[in-house]
Amino acid sequence: MTCRFTLLTLCVLVLSLIAGCAINRSATADGAPLARQVTESDHCGLTAPGLVYVSSAGDLDKLAQLPSGNLALSMLRAIDFKEEHLVLVGLGQKTTGGYGLTLTSSEIVDDVLELALKVRRPAADAW
């Protein structure tokens, strides 16, 4: 897994809940978190760092067409996109294993959902 040219893109699917006019801007009106980590994968097919916003089942179908086809979408098909949306976050292609992302918190600031992520890196001598 620590091979030099291995594609190691960690993807975190973050399910962000629609907050509406909630008074508590770190939770929805029902008390649910604004965002939660749904799953993660070391190989999702994203070769560059960034994120993909998914708001419909059709968007999931487009993700299934990624060349690597490494993203497991079966559990995501149960999501009700009228209530929830997904954000796919990728670190991009890495030369070694040991990279990762974890959702640590979320809040709405000035009507923008901000996600805080913890980045894991391999030891400096991991080649």
From TrEMBL:
<feature type="signal peptide">
    <location>
        <begin position="1"/>
        <end position="21"/>
    </location>
</feature>
<keyword id="KW-0732">Signal</keyword>
<protein>
    <recommendedName>
        <fullName>PrcB C-terminal domain-containing protein</fullName>
    </recommendedName>
</protein>
